[in-house]
Design a protein that fits this description.
homodimer; alpha+beta; 60s Ribosomal Protein L30, Chain: A; six-stranded mixed sheet; four-stranded mixed sheet; 9 helices; 30% helix
């Protein structure tokens, strides 16, 4: 049910308070409190839907500030809408909690609610359940029929473009792990160095702008190589990347070149968008990046064949780093 | 992401196999394998969405046949669509698993897939994640704009009608608990006596038929009294039930009258539909029930005021049983 499966209305009510009470957004015919929420997508639009689950010890630390857990759970889910070029309509939140920890729940809801309000995503359903801590976020969005970005339409000769910088989330996680290794107390708020890991930003504005300008995008959640491989597989093509072109997060400045490259290629969790771009439109990237205030970097091109190759400045293949760090022992 | 958040493609693939591979149903523009699924609701329709989470030890037993877990997780979620009068479009399945237990997963997927195929609900997204066993099911459906059944439109004088019989799920759970108490081995398949608890049937056909004939319905998941109270609260009215009119599940035949009444009023998990019905249309119930091959019983009426009263044959109030058994210690 949409609101109160287990009679834990008060817990869900507590969460709800941090969402400005707005469950009747544009396109929401019925919000919280019934068996289902009802969406009224615009005529000629498709509804995009995705679900993302975050589990304690697999995706976040027990002593991690709860606000960051709330932020990231929503951000990761919204990133899937961004990757489709869909505009968010609403979110459903299923929280499983071992016990009523009002402080944790309040902080969690605050972190998620802050992002939801900033991006104008109403909370339209969900529930709280008793059990081991886990968060399942369902996001819904809309995009004009036929215009949603898929993984399957990259063509040989298209440029491979990525937004922002890569490796920052991985660097942030490493900093956090080192801090823990050193036995230091968990901080009440996150270290700014860890922001890219704890507080990713879904690239919704970019996704919307890409719609109509390209047909292929994915978000970089598993890692650049892994996600690019998903696109290549779905599009039945290959890709070649130029190692020197890859945008490194500033946090990697002090890293050895090999470690930095590995973080950029396989770190994951950056939630940037990776997309195909017609070579003829190359000149349009700069004004687009400028309008969005977000770097858009050509890092290679799609090719006939299959698989992803990374070349160094001399044109020699770089040994592919392992695909995606198993940082939380997950998978 | 829609398919493979944690790279556990093979596990999700294993689940998928039991859904006839149909992820491109009517109204599905894009199924599995991209960042989101895309739905194409019919013009003039709203999209109904709900999420339901089932957690080990809270909602099901560790040694319970996994097929029943799969069946019930989907049935409970679809019941929310039934309660809105929405026709199912698709389901997203987020499974959290402590380890790869292929046998469990196969049986689980088989149980869920069987129901999904019978009701023609395609699997359009979801993922598998590492962590304590839990299942989160997101269902999507559609209904003509303005026709979805809500909780909020019951009016004093409307009849209170319930489908099927009540208390059977509770009786089934009791039988199962007694079997466990007696230390008997868990059976490989469920006892037929427990079917109403383990294998509820979402009343989708009824919900669809009710659309246009009434504006108010809810599914009986928390228990008759609790769910009727939800309707009364949302509709700003009260209700009076006739104890003698309540349809008892045959499993309660040997129970004491008091225990049977408590099971009927508060047992929960029956997933029948409870709806408001204009007194003027009373004669239409019988042919409807006959067409659906499902009993539809007038059990009382909505009243001015608030709260739910239960009257015995002599018109005296029956002491309300506690609202909803806390059978799994949940809530």
């Amino acid at each position: 049910m949409s609101g109160t499966t287990d009679g834990t209305l008060s817990e869900f009510e507590l969460i709800r308070r941090y969402f400005s009470g707005r469950d009747r957004g544009l396109g929401i015919a019925l919000g919280l409190g019934d068996d289902c929420a009802l969406l009224a997508p615009r005529p000629g639009h498709h509804v995009a839907v995705s679900v993302d689950t975050m589990v304690l010890d697999t995706h976040f630390f027990a002593d991690q500030p709860a606000a960051a857990v709330g932020h990231k759970a929503l951000a990761a889910a919204l990133s899937d809408l961004a990757a489709m070029g869909a505009e968010p309509m609403g979110v459903l939140l299923a929280v499983t909690l071992p016990e009523v920890d009002e402080d944790w729940l309040r902080e969690f809801a605050e972190g998620m609610g802050e992002l939801a309000d900033r991006l104008r995503v109403p909370l339209i359903g969900g529930d709280t359940t008793r059990g081991p801590l886990a968060i399942s976020v369902t996001v819904l969005g809309q995009a004009p029929s036929g215009s949603a970005l898929r993984r399957s339409a990259a063509r040989p000769g298209d440029l491979v473009v990525v937004s922002g910088a890569l490796g920052g989330a991985f660097a942030g996680l490493q900093a956090e792990l080192e801090r823990r290794e050193a036995g230091r107390e968990p901080p009440l708020t996150e270290d700014p160095v860890c922001q890219r890991f704890f507080r990713p930003e879904p690239r919704l504005a970019l996704g919307k702008v890409l719609r109509g300008r390209t047909r292929t995008a994915i978000d970089v959640s598993d890692g650049l190589l892994a996600d690019l491989a998903h696109v290549c597989e779905a599009s039945d093509c290959g890709a070649v990347l130029q190692a020197d072109a890859l945008p490194h997060d500033p946090l990697l400045a002090e890293w050895t070149p090999g470690a930095a490259l590995a973080a950029v290629l396989s770190g994951g969790d950056d939630y940037e968008l990776l997309f195909a771009w017609s070579a003829r439109q190359r000149d349009e990237l700069r004004p687009l990046a400028s309008a969005l205030q977000l770097p858009l970097t050509v890092i290679g091109e799609f090719t006939a064949g299959s698989g992803v190759q990374v070349l160094d400045a001399g044109g020699s293949p770089v040994l592919p780093a392992e695909r995606g760090f198993d940082h939380f022992g997950r998978g």
